[in-house]
Amino acid sequence: MTLSPSESYAKSKQAGKFPKTRKFSEGFPFELDQFQIDACHALESGKGVLVAAPTGAGKTIVGEFAVDLVINSGGKCFYTTPIKALSNQKYTELVAKYGEDRIGLLTGDTSVNSEAQIVVMTTEILRNMIYSNSQTINDLKYVVMDEVHYLADKFRGAVWEEILIHLSDAVQIISLSATVSNAEEFGEWLQTVRGETEVIVSEIRPVPLYQHVLFGNRLLDLFGENQKLNPELTRLERDTYRQVRGNWRDRPKGPKPLSRSEIIEKLDRENLLPAITFIFSRNNCDAAVRQCLAAGIKLTNTEERSEIRSVIARNIKNLAEEDLVVLGYYEWADALERGIAAHHAGLLPAFKVTVEELFQKGYVKAVFATETLALGINMPARTVVLEKLSKWNGEAHVAISPGEYTQLTGRAGRRGIDIEGNAVILWNNDLDSTSVGGLASTRTYPLKSSFKPTYNMSINLISQFGSERARTSLESSLAQFQADKAVVGLAKQIRKNEKLRDELYQQAKCHLGDFMQYSEMRSQIKKLESDNKRSKRKRHEIEEEIGNIRKLLKNHACHSCPDRENHSRFAERAQRLQREIDGLTERINSRTNVIAKRFDLIKVILDKFGYIKADEIAKSGKMLAKIYGETDLLVAETVQAGILNTLTPADLVAVVSTYVYESRNEEAAKVPRGEVAVALASISKIYAKIHEAESELNLEPMRAPDFGFCWASQKWAAGQSLTSILKGSDLTVGDFVRSMKQIIDLLRQLRAAAPQLQPIIDQSLTKIDRGVITYAGAAV
After folding, report:
1. What one-character DSSP code corresponds to residue 319?
2. Cα→Cα distances 260→273, 333, 368, 384, Å
3. Mean pLDDT score, 667-671
4. Three-state DSSP class for 472?
5. Which residue has the higher pLDDT, 524 or 10?
6. What is residue 258's DSSP assignment?
7. CATH domain 209-441 topology
8. Tens digits of per-residue pLDDT, 289-327?
């Protein structure tokens, strides 16, 4: 008799097969879902586990089971997250449950109880520990990798794979991912690099999601019965698009869209607040808040406003009073008291944390946010509103993907509070409900590796394993695994084409001679005739060559064959297949060992610039091994050239900013004069040298230094106020704080990598780690 999952679990409980899971689950006021139970069983059985489930489904409970196992059985557990804000959040949750003495936090600029039994950290911290053979890893039993789908991230994704490949086999990995359609493929790769790994996929949302379209003032369901598009919506669209024939002036005239403030008022009337409205622009998020204030919207009562004021006072008590105006504090606080806020990367971290806290407590009812809010922060809402289904990706306006749509709308529906979640798309003339329906119902969001070796990664691997073993380890990456799987498909197609080609060869055979040779000559003539119209060669030269081939053609044995044209048809089809085979073979060659080939090219560069000799790491190589980031080699070369040695603390900060800052626009940078200008000129020459070496090898070039933050960072290091720096600037306070934090992080790396710079770096850190930067905390 086959048991249902719940019956199977009940039986296993009675048999005492999974006592630790049973004891853990009894600590919750609700029953665990089946996927959580299955994942805990896998962990208790000594296996690794990959859990792929929708946002808000409760994946982190599986991670907390690993914490519980360590608390009760000894050893250590690391809980990794992709961003500092998430690390902060998880640290606070675990401290509340297990107490301060057992929980630590490491985020680069924050270190709390780092040798604790449980340490929450950003993913990069663990990667750095592995490369430095840190003693902290000793006795490590479990690593939770929250939001592991981040390994698809173009810039940071490689870090996840580095950990998964190089962490000791004795450590059990708990990988927690958003819903991805190729979880089995990812799990198959984990099995090859980590050993026995159970893949557990759940597509069940704990709170059902309903999709709507706001058509003017009418809130219509996107889907009707059997998940088919709502016929009323499609009829309204048809009426809107119906035009007077032949009159070009007639354009589709839909209903007048509601303003942002009117939308919030409508959601309030429909009992659909709290809501997050995703707007893919920081400026428009701020503008939406202003529009709601101008409309006089107030979503809070007297008691709530009092609570909001006390949270604000607690969270911003360390901010300098003279900076409050430039920070936009008064408008921000007024909006919060009314239950309205913006949330984006341009905000001061203390402001973002306050918005998150008040939203979680239910005091803020309407948040206008960029998509960064969808990155795992615990801010579920009753309703999610999407203003548009396209966004600016830095180069063009592109449609959001089904995966992005799912991630954004996944915020709708608060478990234990709401019986349903709601996604609302605002209708406009560019919207097509068929496309929206396709986007909302698509369940294909594959996880694609973005892994590629960097200079720093390569040096560290060579240092630890030697070139050959390092190369082999890179070939075990998910990127290569996926490339190899694609190669299997291409190879299968080649074999199929070759079989068809050989059959056609047989049908093209001529009893008089080699018909494929004859057919090849006919193909040459066609090509030359085509070239005659486009080629820069002189016409008479091409015509002479055609004439010569025609003579050979007429003298060929097959030319007199009565079945010549039939043979030709088969031969031409065979030649077309051969061209396709050649193209597929070229694609295979470009994918085979692609990661290892990049590693080989990086080794050439490292050897050329003197960082390695054979398998020996030079002194400069040991320094490069401690510098992480997109511009690692440029930083190392600058240190090697002694460019940083004679700079003042403020000038050093300005120069270091060029390695980490990325301008949001292409305006000419305001560059300080004097020693900074001289240093930047030298750095530009070094970059040109690296770029030339990379170009010669067809290696994807390192990004160029960016001078856009030099002026602001130098002024801050020189002691100027935040107000004087930001006044009249396009720089947001959030960007300013984040960039300064990145400078601090790189300066700390340089301090460890280049001891000769320690005194000047210490002075620089003292000058910039002050005021709003110090009190930004670890939330950046």
Report:
1. S
2. 14, 20, 10, 14
3. 68
4. helix
5. 524
6. P
7. Rossmann fold (3.40.50)
8. 999 999 999 999 999 999 999 999 999 888 888 888 888
The distance in angstroms from the start CA to the end CA of the chain is: 55
Say if CB 505 and CB 574 are below 8 A apart: yes
**Stretch (H or E) spanning 469:** helix 467-475
Do 5-201 and 209-441 come out as alike in CATH topology?
yes
Measured CA angle at 183 (ends 180, 189), to 5 deg: 135
DSSP 101: G
Query: Would you place residue 355 in the very low, low, confident or very high pLDDT band (cuts 50, 70, 90)?
Result: very high
- DSSP letter for 31, please: P
Q: Domains of the chain: which residue ranges?
A: 5-201, 209-441, 626-774
Which stretch of 121-125, 482-486, 491-495, 560-564 has the lowest confidence by average pLDDT? 491-495
Give the span between the Cα atoms of 160 and 175, in whole angstroms.
10
pTM over 0.70: yes
Tokens of 600: 């080989």
CATH architecture under which domain 5-201 falls:
3-Layer(aba) Sandwich (3.40)
Collect all residues with Cβ–Cβ distance below 8 Å to 582 and sequence separation of at least 6: none
**Which position has the token pair 């911290």?**
125
Distance between CA atoms of residues 673 and 644, nearest Å = 16
CB atoms within 10 A of CB 153: 14
CATH class for the region spanning 626-774: mainly alpha
Integer Cα distance of 718 and 706 in angstroms: 20
Between the ranges 28-37, 431-440, 631-640, where is the mean pLDDT highest? 631-640
Burial class (CB in 10 A: 0-12, 13-18, 19+), 396: exposed
How many Å apart are CA 76 and CA 140, to the nearest integer?
A: 5
Where are the alpha helices (H) located in 361-477, listed in sequence order?
402-409, 433-441, 455-465, 467-475
* Among 198, 138, 199, 200, CA closest to 170: 138
Q: Is the pLDDT of residue 3 over 70?
A: no
92 vs 603: CA distance, rounded Å: 43
The mean pLDDT of the chain is 87
Provide the strand spans (E) within 465-532. Answer: none
pLDDT tens profile 360-375: 999 999 999 988 765 6
Residue 427 tokens read as: 């209708």
